[in-house]
Amino acid sequence: METLHADRKKMDAATDFLPLQGTDYVEFYVGNAKQAAHYYKTAFGFQSLAYAGPETGIKDRVSYAVRQNKLTIVLTTPLRSGNVIADHIYKHGDAVKILALRVDDATSAWQETTLRGAQSYLEPLTLKDEDGEVVLSGIHTYGETVHVFVERHHYKGAFMPGFREWKTPYYNPTPTGLQYVDHCVGNVGWNQMNKWVKFYEEVMGFRNILSFDDNDISTEYSALMSKVMSNGNGYVKFPINEPAEGKKKSQVEEYLDFYNGEGVQHVAMATNDIIHTVTELRNRGVEFLSIPTSYYDELQERIGKIDEDIEPLKQLGILVDRDDEGYLLQIFTKPVEDRPTLFFEIIQRKGAKSFGKGNFKALFEAIEREQGLRGNL
Question: Which one in 172, 270, 323, 377 has a CA-CA gap of 20 to 30 Å to 71?
């Protein structure tokens, strides 16, 4: 069986026209990048990495890059109105614009995807400085979200040309244990999920590895549907959500209303010790969804034996689910913007490859309680 599995992986690698090494960075367009960078450092434990702006020869915007282990976030603000960045912020609020993917060959990635029908966002572009070169290219996906392909194996600088190293000697909060991007979830409009599933299959060579319908993801009031797309090696996963009919407005509908279109709903960030990470985040002011304590009454009967004590999970509101390969622990922040749009998931996998199906009801009831407080249910 192991030989068969290895042969299958070799075959998949040989036929993968878009080999991805993982998420390179996630870029947000925000109203005030300086303050946003402070927030991600203070609240989430990211570290100062790189800066771009007028001092580096870029006259129309500023960008701050922050990093924690393999997680890199770029925060970009326009310096004037009347441009695509300012228009994006006016329409969507602070939001994810770019999901950047690491590749060996950004030119090939652009050629392969545009050949298969992708709309070009950025033709292959080589950036150079004294630390080497980075090649970028990009394509459009749902809403105004884009994928940028990043080829950086000939670069030794802090981030990329156009940026300079950014050091903050007097203020560097300790990391919180966040490791890498586990997955990014997109919300799309009514009857649009299968369109984008087909896009990821045909344009990027992804596979649909899990599907959830409105029977799987529903409460008394609302429902949604979701399909999980994964690239060949499993390093990049993009669940796609769409609304489903329910008695009241679903979380996806609320998102679409306030975001003014389709976009990234949440970024899931992995940790190796979720109890430590969530404790740190809570102590720094990050707010999480509240789960009723009754969820934990029969947790071990539902999930079986786990390594963690139930009490700290209960105190922190961490959810647990199991699949055929192990279990996972997960928790979701409240929206981190003023609009009820983007939030983060903190996830620790102990063998499980799934996405917490057993937690959907508890999770979405928690989201609905927040919607109700906002008057949007």
Answer: 323
